[in-house]
Amino acid sequence: MIQSLGRYILLLRLSFRKPEKFSVYWAEVMREMVSAGIGSLGIIMIISVFIGAAVTIQTAFQLISPLIPKSVVGGIARDSTILEFSPTISALVLAGRIGSSMASQIGTMRVTEQIDALEIMGVNAPGYLISPKVISGVTMFPLLVIVSVLLGFTGGYIACLTSSEVTTFDFISGLSDGFNPIIVTTCLVKSVVFGFIITTICSYQGFYVSGGALEVGQAATRGVVYSCVMILMFDLIISRLFL
Amino acid sequence: MIEIQDIYKKFGDNEVLKGISSIFKPGVNNLIIGGSGSGKTTLLKCIVGLHEPTSGDVLFNGENFTDMGFEQRVPIRTHIGMLFQNSALFDSMTVEQNIMFPLNLFTNQSKAEKRDRANFCLERVNLAGKNKLFPSELSGGMKKRVGIARAISMQPKYLFVDEPNSGLDPVTSILIDDLISELTVEYNMTTVVVTHDMNSVMGIGDHIVFLHQGKKWWEGSNKEIAHTDNKELNEFVFASRFMRAAKAKL
Known about the structure:
Chain B: This is ABC transporter ATP-binding protein. The complex is a heterodimer of chains A (243) and B (250). Chain A has helices at 2-15, 22-62, 71-111, 114-121, 125-161, 168-176, 182-207, 213-242. Chain A is mainly alpha-helical and 243 residues long. Chain A has one domain (28-242). By secondary structure, chain B is of the alpha/beta class. Chain B is 40% helix and 25% strand. The model of chain B has no long low-confidence stretch (mean pLDDT 91).
């Protein structure tokens, strides 16, 4: 465990060495951003709308009381979406989508000697392969989470339109009532940290794989599982620190 | 010139290389041969720095490569070309992008100059016009040739080749051997080939190092190999009926 942590930290240090040529690395960063950002937009849009709608319906179901104003449903749905559902559920989904792809891509490059080929050429392989993924993770994840939050609200709005428990007016007024900006800060910090966790853990698992196709698959699975555990752990830590 | 001095390599308790020394001269084909598990590929990886030797030194033109850190090794690495056993072409790149990759990173050439160089290298390995194909669209022999084109794109001083004939038919194997041999002379490169292919040994083995049980067992040329009385080498070289028949005719 401690040995793995040491290797993980050393790999990160190697990943952020000065690039051999900035333009080549920049092109890789752009490619990874498109892959992680645009490539994940579809799944994020779908899950966000459904989660937003479900949260709104479930909150309304639990708050049927003449003593509680209906707009509270909007406020609770807003806080739940911003603080938990958008950053955390999105991160868990992205760990499966992007993380496994990163681990298997790097792992395949390892077992087919493509990483050795990079090293022979004098290329800093961790830097060339991992740093663009980490940069794309910490920049694109917050953007995806912002999209997710907005679509979560849209989902809640649609749920109000199609049900009779809460009116859309109450829902929208609830979204703005008692808004505390710290929840947005917490959400963005979480998304940056989760982006870092997914990209670094999955890259690490792929980079040190040895063997063949079976081991690459196992590394990808390990990457996703460890990422999910760390996401939930840091979810708690960040919530504790910020709220 | 590459000089290896008393190379030892251990993986845990398993000592794979046991004090190997040799000198690989430029302009000739240096072959490392031996049976499976004799340490050929490990030795090659120690020479190019993919494995660190447990002890011993590797000198590239007198410079001790083993003592150098990553940054110090880069200038020497830019003079190294390597063809891997499975070619190790980058899957996500076209043939042309594979060849231009080291040029993009380590030269300031214009795009047109890099493309010209890629075209030249592809012509040199008889693959002109295959620029836009992806590695998945190439046959095994074509992949090897693209691997060679990528290896020579930076006009290296040192060429390392790991099992160039594995998985290839005899005709393609000979083509690859001849290509390696021609390029070695043409660029006056120090070429080190790891192989257990007897056609390569007899065809291009100007200087041969035979490894057995992790030790250098024999050293000489393909002209000397047929007349050696080294038992283990004879068993290795003349294991096949074809080679025994050929020896009988000598």
